[in-house]
Amino acid sequence: IGTEGEGYECLYIVLPINLSTVYHIVVRMPSKAEDILLGFKINWMNLRDADSGKVLWQGTEDFTDPEKEHEARVPRKILKCRAVSREISFSSIQAMDKFRLEQRVYFKDRMLEEWFFEFGTVIPNSTNTWQSLIEAAPESQMMPAQVLSGNVVIETQFFDDELLVSTSKVRLFYV
């Protein structure tokens, strides 16, 4: 099962049936990152045209599951926006002192962009809304939707300060 220390706790049990037998059981305890992830959920997310405020896409899938590659179908007109406002509603059972995200945008496994976002303190047993502004690349550097669709993956790493809580991957399809 494992050894004592580093996320393992040792339990000694003496059963009244046979007082001369001591059972040594080692139980794996979740790490702090696992504790945070177990109690962390994205409730919903939306993307808006930052200039008009119009919601262009909204989803309720919890994108925090690191075990699968998620998919999002986003309207292709989002690529014409000067800037996009991303709003996330999330809940956390655990407190976090310095909640932050690192996002990397990959096109056919090659990183194109990297963004860093800081939220700060998360109160335990809370639901929070976080809005961020993402500015578009110059139009001359934009690829057409039909080239990007299905070939773009956004990798998001969730951190509490320097502690990596989870990594999520979302493949984008422009419809």
TrEMBL record:
Keywords recorded for this protein, A-Z: cGMP, Cytoplasm
UniProt record, GO biological process: sensory perception of light stimulus
Keyword Membrane: no
Transmembrane segments annotated in the record for this chain: none
Subcellular localization, as worded in the UniProt entry: Cytoplasm
Domain spans labelled GMP phosphodiesterase delta subunit: 35-174
A cellular-component GO term for this protein: cytoplasm
SUPFAM superfamilies the record matches: E set domains
Family as reported in the entry's similarity comment: Belongs to the PDE6D/unc-119 family.
Subunit structure: Interacts with Pde6.
PANTHER family per UniProt: RETINAL ROD RHODOPSIN-SENSITIVE CGMP 3',5'-CYCLIC PHOSPHODIESTERASE DELTA-SUBUNIT, RETINAL ROD RHODOPSIN-SENSITIVE CGMP 3',5'-CYCLIC PHOSPHODIESTERASE SUBUNIT DELTA
Listed name of the protein: Probable cGMP 3',5'-cyclic phosphodiesterase subunit delta
Species of origin: Meganyctiphanes norvegica
